[in-house]
Amino acid sequence: MVIQIIYLVIVGFVLSLNILDWKATNSRPDALWSTVSTTELVYVYLFMQTLALCVIFPFLAGSTISRERSEKTWALLRTTSMTPGELIRGKFFALLSQGVFILLISAPLLVMMTLLGGVALENLLLEYLVHVVVIAWISAVGVLSSAITKKGAASYISTPLFFFFPMLAALNGAGFTYLSEKKTITSQLINFHASEPKAFYLTISVIFISGLGSLLGAIHLTSPKNSVRSLPTRIGIFMLYGYAAIWFFVYAPSLLNMGGDRDFLILAFFAGILLVPLLRIAGAGPEVPLGIRQLGRDKPIASRLLVLFTPGGIRNLLFCVLIILLFIPAGMVEVGGTLNDPNIDLVTATAGVDFLRDLYFSVLFWLASLMALAWFLGQCGCGSILSASLAFTTHLVAVLVLTVLKMRWGIQGWPAYEPGLGMISTPFNLIQTSGSYGAINFQRGFPSYFEAGAVRVDTIFNIATFVLFTVLGCGVSLVKKMPLIAVYSGDDGKLLLDLPDTAPVLDDSGIEIDPSGADDSESGSDSQVETSKDEA
Amino acid sequence: MSLSGAILQVRNLSVSFGKIKAVNNVNFDVERGVIHGFIGPNGAGKTTTIRVISTLQVPDEGGVWVNGQNVLTQPDSIRMNLGYMPDHVGVYAGLSVHEYLEFFAMTRRIYGAKKASVIADVVELTDLGDLLDREVESLSKGMRQRMCLAQTLLHEPDLLILDEPASGLDPRARIEFRDLILELRRLGKTVFLSSHILSELSPICDSVSIIEKGRVVAHGSIDEIQTLMSQGKTSFDVTLLKDPGNELEPLLSQLPGFMLVMIQGKKFRFEWTGDVEEVSKVWELLSTNGFVISGISKKEDNLENIFMSLTTGEVQ
């Protein structure tokens, strides 16, 4: 109802402006009103529509599941026959249909405007399609945000945090396009496609991947912890990254050839999309979900075939490494454009290609090193979020401290942390470098950055730390007597899979039922308690 | 499959929230076709246990089987055969009662003619006929409870899990709800309901489990628990025609199994250990010695007495 009122206000506002404008510019007796002002008003309306979508929809989407929880309907839904996938799909399409409904409210008015000239109907329809895509993306990410937060109040805080920067960027872009350029987003996208088709497809695919990934993440979060559903979810994550890797493989030569900031931007981007989700996967708990254990017991061959996609033990790390490996072929691609450029001599061009490729591998191995640290922390008992945060923060602080030490006091013996060179290993620096000329100038202060083979030293360091943390994690696993690779070890722990033969046991008086007869309130393993807390 | 005739089997069940052990090594069975009361003070672990049974909560230890299926490994199958009613009935604003039931029928994958048929059946059973067009938000608590019970019955489950169904209902609604539960038992359903309103459970429950501080302190039929609690002793209150003075205790103490508990004027209470049939020896001895009995009553432990005896009222 509130949304409808807001939209009616917007429609009324646009209509009023039209009438006022018609009265003011009634210098054309042959036209009902000025086609120029009609066009502008449509753009104003489209901007306001974008504004409303960006402000209202994150809150609608971000509270979709948490509202069910707070209104006590979520438990009822979860005991029905609906799977988590169906629930999330239903939430997503419900939000999408609300969005389309909102768009349709204003559609008649705008379509009528096309009769007056200035705006083509097909352009308007395409613009509406763009807005539908925006709604779909916000809905997908919002459902994920809502699935993450357990309480309604938290969701209202987390939703703006989720959307603040993307929405700010979207509104900035929409305002520039509609109000300053007086163009539609569709026309800007067409221009983008014409000038940089590969980057265009990359952008589109990223929107698609992030939206689909959000929905998969929401399904995973709403699935029972002990469910076997984590297996298809990991396969889905692998396929999404595989898709991204293929795109990167196809367009790597041209992307790496764009020079300047773009090299770092692309690397930072891939570091970003790999870093956050994979750190959480690597740092997840070492326990094997019960459903997976049951699969290992009942279908050992299938379980072995899918071993890398099953959670728990060292598989959490191996899965992340597998995904990182997907991106290696892209780094192997020849940078043909640079080599064929007649203005650059072959030696310089080859050196540039070598440098970029080394840089690329350095970033990938840096990611692997961080994954190993997160995995080690996960083995130690930290939760996935804590492990990911600690791993990233530790690495970032270490790099910065050691770089400062090197710069200030010229301390030798930090092969991996050459000034500038070590900084490459942080996405913070990559983003900063790509985003500001000042950062590039800052970086140029370190001559060793461009020294031949310097980046390879960084790679060696990252490989070494990867091995170190992997070995340490294995050691922790041995000490804690946790299975590293086994999916089903014949021991179901204290969770009973099969009904024991024993009937309920009464004590001597026949009243109290307690077979163990002991208060083992401290006996629950940490991993099992963790599982329970997540579900609670 | 189930190893016994029990529809619900709980074994070594433990659930913790941080350092608090909400459910601690709980064991019990519920037989098919009975009304089973799950009794305990607030914070005893009733709702946590119910959430595990209803596939909403993963335990830390142990297991729960419904119809021989494990809630951990076969939750989807269990949900097909289980109706769950939470302690607070959530409703979707803007829906009518009929739309609410239609929605939940579809979440149970019931469509078309079958949907209309099962909705008609549950509406008749729960007496919701006059409320079908009412908005769910406008319903009273009792009506909402009936509506929620109706949605739990849509897929014709064998086992109904009702968490505090009588909580917050007025006396009339409670009686109506109790009659409804008895009707469900007559239809062959097994009803597992938690409550702390013992007077509601006592007349309808075939068996009970009493839980306190996460542990089951008693389980069985009310008669069984009474017998177990009394440890073979039966209490009788006797009223004589005139005050026996000090003569009573020396006279009756010679009978094996007799123990005088209390004497007050013409009334006295004693405990009889052994076969209740042999308590007639007391009456005979009294008559032989000139005492005229004007009244005898066997002292019954009702559910409230049992509950108060077994629980301390402490919470975790």
The amount of beta strand of chain A, in percent, is: under 5%
| β-sheet strand percentage of chain B | 25-35%
Poorly predicted runs of chain B are: none
Order of helices and strands of chain B: EEEHEEHEHHHEHEHEEHEHEEHEH
The most extensive interface between chains reads: A-B, 55 and 63 residues
Note the main sheet of chain A: none
Helix-residue proportion of chain B: 25-40%
CATH class label of the largest domain in chain B: Alpha Beta
Instruction: Let me know the number of strands of chain B.
Output: 14
Brief summary:
The complex is a heterodimer of chains A (536) and B (316). Chain A has 536 residues and is mainly α.
Tell me what you see in this structure.
The complex is a heterodimer of chains A (536) and B (316). In chain A, helix 11 packs antiparallel against helix 14 and helix 14 (315-326) packs antiparallel against helix 17 (346-380). Chain A contains 22 helices and no strands. The longest helix of chain A is centred in the last third of the chain and has 35 residues, at 346-380. Chain A is globular and about 80 Å long. The two termini of chain A are 34 Å apart. Chain A has 536 residues and is mainly α. Chain A has helices spanning 2-24, 35-62, 64-70, 74-78, 84-115, 121-148, 152-180, 185-195, 197-222, 230-256, 261-282, 290-298, 300-305, 315-326, 328-332, 336-340, 346-380, 384-409, 427-435, 437-443, 454-479, 526-535. Chain B is α/β, with parallel strands linked by helices and 316 residues long. Chain B has 2 domains: 6-220, Rossmann fold (3-Layer(aba) Sandwich); 232-300, Alpha-Beta Plaits (2-Layer Sandwich), CATH 3.30.70. In chain B, 33% of the residues lie in helices and 29% in strands. Chain B contains 11 helices and 14 strands. In chain B, strand 9 (207-212) and strand 10 form a beta hairpin. Chain B is elongated and about 80 Å long. Chain B starts with 5 loop residues before the first strand and ends in a 6-residue tail after the last helix. In chain B, 44% of the residues are buried. The mean pLDDT of chain B is 86.
